[in-house]
Structure formats: C-alpha cells, structure tokens
Amino acid sequence: MSQPVIKMHLADNVAVVVTDGGLPAGTDISAGVTLIENIPQAHKVALQKINKGEAVIRYNVAIGYAKEDIAAGSWVSENSLIMPDALGLENLPLATQPGAIGEPLTNFTFQGYRNADGSVGTRNILAISQTVQCVAGVVDFAVKRIREELLPKYPNVDGVIGLAHTYGCGVAIDAPTAPIPIRTVRNIALNPNFGGEIMVVSLGCEKLQPTRLMPPGSIPATVVDGPQVLCLQDEENVGFMSMIDSIMQQAEVHLTRLNKRTREACPASELVVGMQCGGSDAFSGITANPALGFAADLLVRAGATVMFSENTEVRDGVDQLTSRAATPEIANAIIKEMEWYDNYLAAGMVDRSANTTPGNKKGGLSNIVEKAMGSIVKSGSSPIVGVLSPGERLRDKNIPHGLVYNSTPASDFICGTLQLAAGMNLHIFTTGRGTPYGLAECPVIKVATRSDLARRWHDLMDVNAGRIADGEKTIEEMGWEVFQLMLDVASGKKTWAEQWKLHNALVLFNPAPVT
Fold first, then answer.
1. Going by C-beta distance under 8 Å and a sequence separation of 6 or more, which residues neighbour residue 167?
2. pTM, whole model, 2 decimals?
3. Within 10 A of 177 (CB to CB), how many other CB atoms are there?
4. Cβ atoms within 10 A of the Cβ of 330, count?
5. CA 377 to chain centroid
6. In sequence order, what E strands does 278-402 have?
7. H or E element: which one contains 312?
8. Please, are residues 345 and 263 in contact by the beta-carbon 8 Å criterion?
9. Alpha-carbon distance 361 to 432, whole Å?
10. Per-residue pLDDT tens for 292-324?
C-alpha cells in the first residue's frame, strides 16, 4: 500500500516523503512522529531526534552529520548536514563479497541483426564518422539529403546519422590523454547497430588523419572493404555540391548492403545494455534504480552484458564495488579508475561537493554520498566481471558476459557516448527530475522515478517506476516488466525518444573526459 514516507533500511533515522505535493505540518507519519513543518515530496524527514554531530542514516549509511540538533518530524535538507569525508582508496575490500548469479534464464530471445563479427544490433543504421569538426556542417547537409532522397529506397534501414565531435585538429594530438577521444570515435564506428559498415569523411589537412583514427589492424577483418574514406580536399571534388554528391554516392553503397539485413531470433545473451541515471532525485534509489538492479540481475542470468558507469556517482560507494569484484585484479582496476577521477578533480581545483546539481537538491538529494547510494543500486547484485576505461571496447578487452563497470564521467551524453564506444546496443535511463535525453545511435528506454513525472511527461517516459512508491508494483514486478520491455525494444519496438527523434548524435568530449 502507498505510504506517506519510505525509509530504505530498518536502521535509518530519516525517511523520504512520498506523497505528491509533499506533506503539511501536523501530518502523523508513523508511531509517535508528527511533522513539525511542511516537507516537499522526495525530501527527508527525521524519524527521531538527531543530536548535533550524530550521523544521519539512509540506506544504512551515514550520508552526513547533523550541523545542529534535528528534532523528530523536521525537514532534513542539505543545509542540515555536514558531508562525510570521501572513502580512502587504500585497504578497501577486494573481491570479498562478489555475490552469486541466480539460476540461468533460458529461452529468452529478441529479434536482432546479426553481424559478421559475432555481435548483434538492435537497430540497422548507417553512421558516417568524421575525422575532424571542420567537416561537420558538410556531413550534416549530406545526411539531410540522404534521409530525404535515399532512405525511402532502403526500407530495412532505420536511419542515417553523422558522428560529429569537437576534436581532430588545433589540439595537442600527441597529448597523454589523446588516445581517449581517438579510440572513442573509432570504437563508436564499430557499434553493433551500424552493421559493420564504416564510412569516414575527412577534410584532408587535419591532424587526426584517417590512418591515425583507424590504423591498420584496428578494424576487424569482417568490415567489408575496410573503412571507406572520403576526403573533401581531394581534387575530384569541385565545389560544395560535388562534395555532397560524393558522400551520397558512397552512402548508397553502404545502404544497399544494410538494406539486405533482416531481423532474426537472437538469445538475450547478445544484449549489451548500458544503464545510466540523469536528473536524479531521492526516488531514484527507491523505485527506478532498484527495479533496474533487479532487471540487471535477470539480464546477467540470461547471459547478457550489463554496463553501469559514472565515476562521480559511485566514488562514495567504492567499497561496495571492490567487494563485489569477481577477482582482486578487477577490484584494483576499479580503484585505478577512481584514482584517475580523484586526480582529475584535484587538477581542476574542485572537490566532490560540486555534485549534486541544483535539480538533484530540489529533488531531495542532499549530497553526493546520498546520491551515490541510490545510483549504485541499479547495478544489481551480480559480481563485477570486468572494468573498461573511457572509450575502450568490450570485444577488444575479451571481457566475459556479465556485469561490467564502464568508467565514464556522469554527464549524460558523455556517459552514453562512451557506453556506445564500448559496444552498447540498448540503453536504459532513469530520471526523477526529467530530461529529454536520447541517442541517435541506440534506442533509449526512459524510466520515471515518480508517478507525477510520468503523468506530466507522459509522452517522454516509457516506464513509470513510481508505481512502486504508489504501492501498485513491487520492485521485482517492475524489474520483470523492464526486462521484458528491453527485449521488445531490442526487437524493434520504438521508444518515445525514437518516436520524437530526441536524438543527440554528437560525440561530446574534450581531449580528456570531463565530469
């Protein structure tokens, strides 16, 4: 049944207000606790008196320490708390509780596109890569013409996109972190949803030459004819429209091959699912992310690969990750990625208090510790079988199927970009505040944490996980619903983001990933 407040663990001394519009002063929320002030939805209420300096507990974790005495029934906000220090990266538990995978799930399939390299796509898309930002305008113009004039002739092709980015020239191409964006652009071109068709547009004078972007040996032998490169400065191109005609002629070669592809039954083990949060609120860790965590365990039991990410979002729960690593080596790889993140913050002369965002705070999240606890839960309970650095590809690292930590920044599109580079063919995204996020390269399932958001953004949210807080669904029931929806979307069912074409096809990054 729906309750006015929810607490996550028996040991918690705060709970979160569930009721739409919040609760007024005088509301009796539990035995002996009455609100002494109005408290907005998703914000915390003290369930007992918390003395100055005592821990404020949520998820059975100290998310802060009381600045002053907090009376029972009071609003507990970010202004009430002193944030705990970050966990050190020394003496962490290494593979001490890797968890167990439940009974295998068999006979779950989806209708996907098999690729020559053994991967499977959930969409059939022509992607045009670029060596440098200078060609983005030309490619954009060509893509519009391809959509209008060529795509109607190739009904089995879902779309054409340009993979633009802000890199390629006028940068320190040999800087220590330059391999990150270079391998990201290259590996996105190899995403399973592009069918092994690699088309590259170059300017000609850029530092990131095509042979550097895709050097010999970096592209699988299964790619037909290898990377097809068009250089705009070639003498054959006489005028702007000649450039466009060249791009369209080459595109038609790829479209012809893509159009021959058809969907076929593929086991659920061929899914590579990226999970992400954006515009989080206090409900993220109560409804949507726990449901995703249950679905993640189902996917792993079905033999699929599940990626969770966002250094920012997991740093304050790093001990949970290292203990769940399948081996000490994997645990140490997680620590290495967190060290990179700590050094990045130090170089920028900022600290982790820069997160949470104003929207997170308005949604009841007081600090990054509380936010991290709600974020990590979407990874489920399976052992972590591998770690990817930014821009790396699963198939290149020979990581087994299962739960993988993909080290990325938390910014929505940058995280999504790096998951695409890893080989993601399906994306699922939870939000409490709301965001019109979408990717052109991959279907994105949007999950609302609250029923109020799902009602207001009824044609943007694919799933209303707020039904958990409303008492209509259990976490397990919602997890099964999400799991089945992922199979349906992987088989071609359109998400709201796809229907509205809320796509961002840009590869967004700086020479080093940003948080």
1. 132, 133, 181, 182, 185, 208, 509, 511
2. 0.96
3. 14
4. 23
5. 14
6. 305-308, 384-388
7. helix 311-314
8. no
9. 11
10. 999 999 999 999 999 999 999 999 999 999 999
